[in-house]
Amino acid sequence: MNESVLIGRAEKFLSGIRRNPINADDIRDLDSFMAIYVYLKDNLYELQEFRDTMEIKGYKAPYRSIMKFGRVSSREMKVEDLHDITRHTQHFRMRAALKKNILDRVKSSIASHKIAVGHLEEFAIIKCPICNRDYMGHEIADIKAQKCICGSMNLEFKINHHSVYRLEIIKYLPLSGEYMVKMSELSSHGREAFRKIVRILKQEKRGIVKTVSMVVKVFEDGRWVRKRVNLDCSDQLNYENEIRKKYGSNARIEFLQFHRKKPSIINDKHVQNALALGYVKFSEQKAENILPVILNKNIKNREKLKKYDEIIEIARETGRRMGEDVQDQKILEKELIIEELGKEGLICEGLKDKELQDDLLLRKKLEEKLLIDAPRILILWDLVKYYLSTSYDRRSKYSGPFPNLRPVLDKNQINTFTDFEKSLVECLKEYSGEKIEYISSLNELLNQKFEIERKLKGLHVKMNLPAVGAVILHNTGKLSLEKSSAIFSVTTGEVISEREKIRTFQNPAAGKAQKFLEMIKD
After folding, report:
1. Chain centre to alpha carbon of residue 317
2. What is the DSSP code (8-state) at residue 204?
3. What are residue 126's DSSP bridge partners?
4. Residue 63 gets which letter from DSSP?
5. Helix (H) or strand (E) segment spanning residue 212
6. Residue 486: what pLDDT?
7. DSSP for 262-281?
8. SS3 string of 126-180?
9. What is the DSSP letter of 507?
């Protein structure tokens, strides 16, 4: 396919996605769910085809083709030739930039579609009453034309209250790949919140050894020779034994070098950007709804604050209209504000009214908390819930609502799940209806879940994973049984049952039980 045709087709496809925005907030039946789900899945397939074609054609490194073979001194060339070479080089650089930008947009769009599909798959359970099969998660993709694999078209739709999802963020994702445009539209608070979230998602695992390079001295054919050897690293790898197995007992390691990798919590920059944008814009919309309510409940004098806002707005508009340049506008605006505040008795000797000053300070603090800290708290809380309510295998094999998520975190990454302000958590819980609780040590919850997974590895024990998450909230997070159950929408009986099961496997009562567990692990 011609490069211009490929780029044009991709841009046209992305423009079509932009003109057809998705709003999944009000999904309540099978038809509306499947319409959005199938649309996003079809888009994702098409986008992946574009990406694969572009990568085959070298769009990942388009500037490599711009090379000067056989450099010629400018003294040996005519002015006209130099001009032509410069013009041609500029043309090819522009083409290379087009390739790089369109591939970047396609990858961003793919990341956003994966996130949207993941949230939809967590949201729904589709049941076939004929064969009693439940379609959940990635299994929903098996439904073709709203038809069960048994042939029945009488499918039932219900919401999966045990899972982690936020359909509200889908409309804020850069589904058309224009993440740079959406980033430029963020407010100053939004940009700060965006940076904080990306910084967390980029948190790298401490360097673990991926491969080992060695220079080995081996006795062959009556003489010593040196060989370069590369080994893939595993947890219990004994390098010396491996070399002796391969080259004999006389082999000696002369040089050893470790190559490390540092995977992030979410190991894809486009997923990081898309998630950050979705949560920041979602939190801004939530803040707009609850901020007036909180202010009305806590400010001292609502009328003074309202009058102050009116004066500021009129002064800015007048300054923009009458000022000749930016500096004149600011000077005029400042003079008008002081004059009008003085007339209203809201300023005296250069100082604002004490009551007004306190209300302005309170509003500023509330805006910073809701617009900067709330997005970070919401995404961290969702990540914690997702880790607590899913298995290691599921996190490893399926992307879910957080594509490219590390299935297990190290101590360095777990420690980022801290620093939740209790007052803000209570505010979100009270005014926005969030199912969230303040826990002083969220990192301990993750440590406990990963420890349970390590102990149960290889036992093939069927667990009620949302109930396991509630057990950890109850035991480690020190929440009541009722609160822990409500967060994962499970019954207290289910939580008690899983708690006893975990206790049994963690601390076998009899020696025979301990031996049995060791046998089935082996």
Report:
1. 40
2. B
3. 135, 157
4. G
5. strand 208-220
6. 92
7. --BSB--HHHHHHHHHHHHH
8. EEECCCCEEEEHHHHHHCECCECCCCCCCCEEEECCCCCCCHHHHHHCCCCCCHH
9. S
CB 307 within 8 A of CB 360: no
Q: Is the pLDDT of residue 510 over 60?
A: no
The answer to whether residues 165 and 122 touch, using CB atoms and an 8 Å cutoff, is yes
Q: Which residues lie closer than 8 Å to 264 by C-beta, 6 or more apart?
A: 201, 202, 203, 204, 205, 272, 406
Structure tokens at 419: 């620093």
Does residue 211 sit in helix, strand or coil?
strand
**Which residue pairs, CB below 8 angstroms and at least 24 apart, start in 84-92?**
92/65, 92/66
pLDDT tens string 431-443: 888 889 998 888 8
How far is Cα 28 from Cα 24, in angstroms, rounded to an integer? 9
| The pLDDT value given to residue 446 | 92
Which of 404, 432, 416, 425 has the alpha carbon at shortest distance from 380? 416
Which strands make up the sheet holding 133-136, listed edge to edge? Answer: 133-136, 124-128, 156-159
pLDDT in tens, 400-459: 899 999 998 888 888 888 778 888 888 988 888 888 999 888 889 999 999 888 888 777
CB 296 within 8 Å of CB 222:
no
**Secondary-structure percent of the chain, ordered helix, strand, coil, rounded to 5:** 60, 10, 30
Interstrand relation of 252-261 and 223-232 (parallel, antiparallel or unpaired): unpaired
Phi/psi at 260 (nearest 5 deg)?
-105, 160
- Cα-Cα-Cα-Cα dihedral sign, residues 365, 371, 375, 381: positive
Task: Please state the domain extents for the chain.
Answer: 3-177, 208-261
pLDDT at 485 over 90: yes
